[in-house]
Specification:
Helices cover about 45% and strands about 5% of the residues. The chain is mostly helical. It has three domains: about 90 residues, no CATH class; about 25 residues, no CATH class; about 60 residues, no CATH class. A two-stranded parallel sheet has the order 1-2. The longest helix is centred in the first third of the chain and has 16 residues. The protein is globular.
């Protein structure tokens, strides 16, 4: 939402999302080096509550408020929160309206029927919902093994499902990642 405000200001408009009492919780207010780790934790925690609050967050889209409703910050370490926020800040997307849309023709070139067929086929396999615990396990793996968050999330999910072998070409073949061994599907074996 802060990016929408920034775009509006850049085009000569006004902020519409992080205004009034929410202004101090803007994304760009959390990241400066002048904000200490403890201040960042406090601002982030207060911001989560303020965004989901019916009074201060009433002007925000309902989906955005719902994401933060009943959310809480599991880690209170400013260093860890800073690492997390910097990782999220590195996400890049150019077509907001296509973000997360698997049938968006611009990115994936799949028709809706093809997308549905793929999704139904995926349901033949165990599906693990992304929970806060899984995200934190992935974050811990990322820090411990110095791998990308996304690789760590896949490993954490595989471990939670009881997998012992993970076929991937993105990790060190043969390395044990806490009980899940990476194997390359392209090895001559």
């Amino acid at each position: 939402m802060d990016d929408l405000d920034e775009e509006s200001v850049a085009m000569g408009g006004k902020r519409a999302c992080f205004t009034g009492p929410l202004a101090k919780y803007r994304w760009r207010a959390l990241l400066p080096l002048t904000v200490s780790g403890d201040q960042r934790v406090a601002l982030f925690s207060e911001g989560v509550e303020a965004i989901s609050n019916a009074k201060t967050g009433a002007h925000l889209p309902e989906l955005f408020r719902d994401i933060f409703r009943n959310a809480f910050l599991k880690f209170r370490d400013g260093r860890i929160l800073t690492l997390f926020l910097n990782e999220v800040n590195g996400f890049a997307y150019s077509h907001r309206e296509e973000l997360g849309n698997a049938s968006g023709k611009k990115r994936f070139r799949l028709e809706a029927e093809e997308t549905e067929t793929i999704l139904r086929a995926m349901l033949e396999y165990p599906v693990l919902p992304l929970t806060g615990e899984l995200a934190l396990a992935a974050f811990a793996l990322q820090l411990r093994d110095q791998i990308s968050y996304w690789a760590a999330a896949i490993i954490a999910a595989a471990r939670a499902l009881g997998c012992k072998i993970l076929y991937t070409d993105d990790l060190n073949a043969g390395q044990d990642y806490g009980g899940v061994v990476a194997r390359t599907p392209f090895a001559n074996a």
